[in-house]
Structure formats: C-alpha cells, structure tokens
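Task card 7
Instruction: Convert sequence to structure tokens.
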Amino acid sequence: MAAHQCYACGPEEELDCNNFDPNNKSFIKECPPNTSCEIKAYGNTLERSCSEMMVQDCKIANKIRYCYCVMHLCNDKMNFSDDEDLTEGSGIPVNPVIINTNQNEQQKTSNLSNQSNHIQFCLYSTYISILALLCN
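Output:
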C-alpha cells in the first residue's frame, strides 16, 4: 500500500507556495501513517503540509484559515464555504436511511460504520471549533 501523500510548501518546508504547481513532484511529501493534509493561509502566506488532525473541515481562528482533508494529495486548493449549507457540516447524518413500508411494518436500516465515522467527524469538527475559541 502506498504511503499517504500531501503537498508541502511554505515557510517550514523546502519550497515556496508562491511557486506551487501540483504537477511538480517536488511539492509532494510522504506523510506518516494516520495523518491528513493541511493547508493554511494567513496574510499573504500560504502553507501546505501533513497534519495529525484526522478531519475534513475548514475553520478560521486568529485570522488564520485552516483546511484539513483526508484524501491523497487533497491540499492543492482551499475550499472555504459556509459549511452549514453543506450536508456534511449541517449535523444531518450523511449515511442513508432506508424505510421499508412492506406489510405495514416500518424498518430503519443504516450502516453502523457510517454512523461511527459521522460521530468521529463531528467530534473532530467540534475540537477544531473549541481550539479556535481558545485561540481568540
């Protein structure tokens, strides 16, 4: 299995993000296991790196914009949006619920694994929000 990779550039990395090119393999960094990718912006400075935050979310704290993502090489762009308008940020479970109305019996079926992942995602998102409040 290939190692998790993220783009890396900025003041603490070898390359400057002002010259970032996702097609240039020099910007690709092998990350430790169980890490995500991060991109953060403050002032005119942009940084990309590996992160220990296993979450997919964007937040602003102390005028610094942070985005975390868990996919391979996902930190090429910063996608800030009003996450309350998105299903994954709204608190609505993202796993489908199927209601069977056959024979006048209603049964709800869901994938417990998806529910567990959703709960973990909500906890990480809450953790980032608490950090943002503490840093202000």
